[in-house]
Design goal:
By secondary structure, the protein is mainly alpha-helical. Helix content is 52%, strand content 6%. The radius of gyration is 21 Å and the shape is flat.
Length: 309
């Protein structure tokens, strides 16, 4: 079971519990499931019981107990635990790399017209949130309130360029003020935007190099736990970014994915006289999938993803 499957399973469990009369209230269209924070229980958690309890007039712990009992019998969920006042925590069985790779699809990015007015940061955040919501099929919410940029829009854009400004703005939570510095212009490891774009370009380069060696990507088993974990979490990150209307969640995830891919890239192509094998094809498929996710994530933020750097 993938983390995205888990989110759908929770919705299904709520629906069945309501239909069977165990729970009252409305069935949510979506349930936010997120990676458990360090020190937490299990791998993933959701506060859905609090959402259901509010409409059902019961304690969240009672809702959580009903859902835990139902979800504990689902194949692919190894353990369900209730913590605190009603948080559901999950540990999942292993997911094959081939399945994760096959589930990756290019993101359909909606064209968002520039808001007719507003300060630079407000326009960038509103557009990014609208794209993320559209990609997740979420109804647009009210405008996000953000702290303004302290410098004049034109000065900032002229100094750093549109993409760097967008990155600085969209990686900053709404209540904080974005910082602009010359590190945004450095094409090196210290620049997070550069790392994300470079990782995407490397993924595309690996595919081109493999074609020259006579082989193409083919999903299969790959021993790359760090990269697989981040890739598996991507659908949940998009759901959370849409639910919380927080593009910085997506931006942080792209950095994590880029770093995992850059560490993995050296294992993809054959070395020396080594012949391309099924393992190389599977690694290439994983790298290509990660590159696709990076390109889609940048597009949702309104940032260009060059194929060559």
């Amino acid at each position: 079971m993938t983390p995205a499957d888990l989110s759908r399973c929770v919705v299904s469990a709520v629906r069945r519990a309501v239909e069977d009369g165990e729970l009252g209230g409305a069935v949510p269209a979506r349930v936010v499931v997120e990676r458990t924070r360090p020190g937490g229980v299990g791998e993933y958690a959701t506060p859905v019981a609090f959402q259901i309890a509010k409409g059902a007039g019961v304690r969240p712990a009672e809702v959580a107990a009903v859902l835990a009992r139902r979800l504990g019998a689902v194949a692919g969920i190894e353990r369900v635990e209730v913590t605190g006042a009603g948080f559901l925590n999950f540990s999942l069985g292993s997911v094959s790399a081939a399945r994760l790779v096959r589930n990756v699809r290019p993101v359909a990015v909606m064209e968002v017209p520039d808001p007719p007015s507003g300060e630079l940061r407000e326009r960038l955040v509103r557009a990014a949130v609208a794209r993320i919501e559209a990609a997740q099929g979420v109804r647009p919410g009210p405008a996000v309130s953000v702290a303004p940029v302290a410098r004049r829009d034109g000065d900032v854009l002229a100094r750093y360029g549109t993409d760097a400004v967008a990155w600085a703005v969209l990686t900053t939570p709404a209540r904080e003020t974005p910082e602009f510095c010359d590190a945004l212009l450095v094409q090196g490891e210290g620049n997070e935007l550069h790392r994300v774009r470079y990782a995407h370009a490397r993924a595309r380069a690996l595919v081109r190099n493999a074609e020259q060696l006579g082989f193409r990507p083919e999903p299969g088993d790959v021993d790359a736990p760090a990269l697989l974990r981040v890739l598996a979490d991507h659908p949940l990150v998009l759901e959370a970014a849409a639910y919380h209307r927080a593009p910085e969640r997506l931006a942080r995830h792209l950095v994590e994915l880029a770093d995992a891919l850059l560490d993995f890239q050296y294992r993809v192509l054959p070395k020396g006289d080594e012949k391309p094998s099924a393992a190389h094809r599977a690694r290439l498929a994983l790298a290509e999938a990660a590159g696709t996710v990076l390109a889609g994530g940048l597009a949702l933020l309104g940032i260009d993803a060059p194929t060559r750097l």
